[in-house]
């Protein structure tokens, strides 16, 4: 991290952030902060310097108010990267919390018209809205409305970051409205906006094999046939769409969106920050930053195992999840289900339940990933038989 070569030093800071992700490691934070304060201004002006900020932010991922000390310590830096780092540290600290006050603060950062070279923090603030609000549906819908306002009234830097914020709110979840929105932005006259919209389309469809998105990418490939940079991004997005032949996802949230994987979230944050300078990072020098997305790739399957960890082909119902919080009795938790034998795929917004009363999970868990099941001690064969209708 003390190396004279800026690239090596920045990637070392990023690696430190990944090693101690979400740990608030004091020595790691101090070493990155010291390096930032010692670097001359011409080096901090380089686009690669953003990875010092990302590495520092990852140390405080999900730690909420524990980030206040490091934000105060950043006051020693006299460079626009200070504001960029402060905003990113706060966004990472409250990621997935749905904290309304922090979303308001991020929106407040988007006001004003600083010079373009000093406005990097505004792009991070837009990403921050997506990161903080992505964990539940109500927050996502509300922030979507805010993002539409930013698109209408924001400056150029803010508008360019909006496709990435939309992608963060809908990772591996190709909603038709979001798809249409991004498809429109992918034909924008501003090259940076269109490039980010193309990548955002890839992120919302990652690992879904969505046929509508595949059609959009085929149209974009024809539209940008003579533009090698945009065509390159279309091909990358097509790769993301068909990732793992539709068996994997990049969604970091699990357990009914109650928890998230810190490593997976770190991969998404690194990739989103890399996309804030599409031309210099993804298209030209540092195209290998794409591989940080591999941290987020994970199978979206449900495997049922017996107590000796051997797979069991038990019948499972998979359907759209229904919110049953606060409802009396035992309401149906899924709707429009199909019955398959395990292992089964569970896409975004879907839920699974065992179709027979004969087997039950050994603990009361959300059925996803690997679940150990056992025979139900209270089971009788009459429970699975359909009841006969009796006429009065």
The residue ranges in which pLDDT falls below 50 over 5 or more consecutive positions are none
Percent of residues in beta strands? 5-15%
Count up the helices: 16
Number of strand elements: 11
Main β-sheet, spatial strand arrangement: 8-5-11-10
Query: Could you describe the largest sheet, including whether it forms a barrel?
Result: 4 strands, mixed
The overall pLDDT average reads 88
Helical/strand content category: alpha+beta
Element-by-element helix/strand order: HHHHHHHHHHHHHHEEEHHEEEEEEEE
Through-space gap between termini: 82 Å
Helical content class:
40-55%
> What is the molecular shape?
globular
Determine Rg (CA atoms, Å).
23 Å
Describe the SSE topology:
Layout: H1 6-19, H2 26-38, H3 41-44, H4 50-58, H5 68-73, H6 81-93, H7 100-109, H8 120-133, H9 137-153, H10 156-169, H11 176-185, H12 191-204, H13 211-223, H14 228-241, E1 248-249, E2 253-254, E3 259-260, H15 262-274, H16 278-285, E4 298-299, E5 301-305, E6 315-321, E7 334-341, E8 344-345, E9 350-354, E10 359-361, E11 369-375
Parallel strand pairs: 5-11
Antiparallel strand pairs: 1-4, 2-3, 5-8, 6-7, 6-9, 10-11
Keywords:
47% helix, 16 helices, single chain, alpha+beta
Can you offer a commentary on this structure?
The chain is an alpha+beta fold. It has helices spanning 6-19, 26-38, 41-44, 50-58, 68-73, 81-93, 100-109, 120-133, 137-153, 156-169, 176-185, 191-204, 211-223, 228-241, 262-274, 278-285, and strands spanning 248-249, 253-254, 259-260, 298-299, 301-305, 315-321, 334-341, 344-345, 350-354, 359-361, 369-375. It has a four-stranded mixed β-sheet, with no helix packed on it. A three-stranded antiparallel β-sheet has the order 7-6-9, with no helix packed on it. A hairpin with a 4-residue loop joins β2 and β3 (259-260). The N and C termini lie far apart (82 Å). The mean pLDDT is 88.
């Amino acid at each position: 991290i003390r190396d004279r070569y800026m690239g090596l030093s920045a990637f070392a800071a990023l690696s430190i952030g990944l090693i101690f992700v979400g740990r608030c490691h004091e020595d790691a934070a101090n070493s990155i902060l010291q390096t930032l304060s010692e670097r001359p201004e011409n080096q901090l002006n380089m686009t690669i310097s953003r990875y010092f900020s990302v590495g520092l932010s990852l140390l405080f991922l999900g730690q909420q108010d524990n980030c206040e000390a490091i934000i105060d310590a950043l006051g020693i830096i006299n460079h626009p990267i200070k504001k960029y780092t402060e905003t990113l540290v706060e966004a990472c600290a409250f990621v997935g919390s749905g904290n309304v006050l922090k979303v308001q603060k991020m929106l407040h950062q988007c006001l004003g018209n600083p010079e373009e070279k000093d406005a990097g923090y505004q792009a991070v603030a837009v990403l921050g809205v997506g990161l903080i609000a992505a964990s539940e549906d109500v927050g996502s819908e509300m922030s979507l409305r805010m993002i539409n306002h930013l698109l209408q009234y924001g400056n150029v830097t803010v508008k360019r970051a909006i496709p990435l914020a939309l992608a963060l709110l809908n990772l591996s979840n190709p909603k038709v409205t979001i798809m249409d929105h991004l498809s429109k932005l992918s034909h924008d006259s501003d090259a940076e906006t269109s490039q980010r919209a193309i990548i955002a389309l890839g992120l919302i469809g990652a690992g879904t094999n969505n046929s509508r998105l595949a059609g959009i990418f085929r149209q974009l490939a024809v539209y940008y046939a003579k533009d090698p940079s945009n065509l390159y991004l279309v091909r990358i997005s097509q790769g993301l769409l068909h990732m793992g032949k539709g068996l994997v996802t990049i969604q970091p949230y699990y357990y009914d969106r109650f928890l998230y994987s810190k490593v997976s979230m770190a991969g998404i944050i690194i990739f989103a920050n890399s996309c804030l300078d599409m031309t210099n990072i993804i298209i030209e020098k540092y195209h290998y930053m794409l591989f940080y997305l591999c941290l987020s790739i994970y199978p979206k399957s449900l495997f049922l195992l017996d107590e000796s960890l051997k797979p069991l082909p038990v019948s499972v119902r998979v359907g759209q999840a229904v919110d049953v919080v606060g409802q009396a009795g035992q309401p149906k938790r899924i709707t429009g289900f199909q019955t398959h034998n395990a292992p089964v795929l569970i896409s975004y917004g879907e839920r699974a339940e065992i179709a027979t009363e004969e087997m039950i999970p050994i603990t009361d868990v959300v059925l996803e990933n690997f679940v150990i099941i056992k025979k139900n001690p209270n089971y009788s064969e009459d429970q699975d038989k359909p009841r006969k209708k009796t006429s009065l």
